[in-house]
Amino acid sequence: MTELLFQTDAYMREFSAQVTATEGQAVALDRTAFYATGGGQPHDTGTLSASDGRTWRVTEVRKQGDQVWHTLEGEPPAPGTAVQGTIDWVRRHKLMRTHTALHLLCGVIWRDYQAPVTGGNMDTDEGRLDFELPNFSNVLAQEIVAKVNAEIAAARPIEVRILPREEAFAIPDLIRTKINLLPEGISQVRTVNIVGLDLQADGGTHVADTGEVGRVVLLKTRSKGANNKRIVIGIEDAG
Per its UniProt entry, which superkingdom is the organism in (predicted)? Predict the structure, then answer.
């Protein structure tokens, strides 16, 4: 089982770990700060290094069961090897900003239109969410993005907690997706709370307050059906 360090500290850039298994070019670690692809968020990249000077570039991270596998360039270290992990912080921080921006978008639309999310994806500089949102227009999308930027300017703090399943599911509207994507039988649920706006179950990495996002711009809109509408946003530095 791999301990997921990013779940409690998204700002962790370096960590120590031990290789527990190998599979081809991939290694499993007993603990990691690398985020594995999931929930629409891409994996982190970075490096692993050993005390003898060997260094491996981490090109892919995936979760399989309770283990996180890190695909490396070059011959991987053997099980039992102590390694130091270093996150590509520039990439990670962009992903954190984008993911938080999508939660702001989700929070604004839920607060003002009670529209659930039907799909989503993201990369370092942009992300998209699909909503069950009738009477949609580009003008409405621009208004929504303006509201998101107002929430960014409010610099709302963001709190991450890991709760027992029963306590988490007692929270109203914890699941904002049209379909509940949480695995059956999980005993703990990680929640992300943009204080005063949005509280939902989520496993990804986020900034500490909304002001760190910078600025959101509307890139495009698209109709995916009668009531299924897509909003694509980009992330910019605050001007």
Answer: Bacteria
Any bridge partners for residue 87, and if so which?
Answer: 46
Domain 3-87: state its class: mainly beta
Task: Summarize pLDDT for 148-182 with one digit per residue, the tens.
Answer: 999 999 999 999 999 988 888 788 777 655 445 55
Reply yes or no on domain 92-236 having CATH 3.40.50.300.
no
Q: How far apart are CA 14 and CA 51, in angstroms?
A: 15
pTM: 0.93
Residue 127: its H or E element: strand 126-132
Sign for the pseudo-dihedral over CA of 226, 228, 232, 238: positive
CATH topology agreement for domains 3-87 and 92-236: no
Render pLDDT for 50-64 as a digit per residue (tens, 0 to 9).
Answer: 999 999 999 999 999
Domain ranges of the chain: 3-87, 92-236
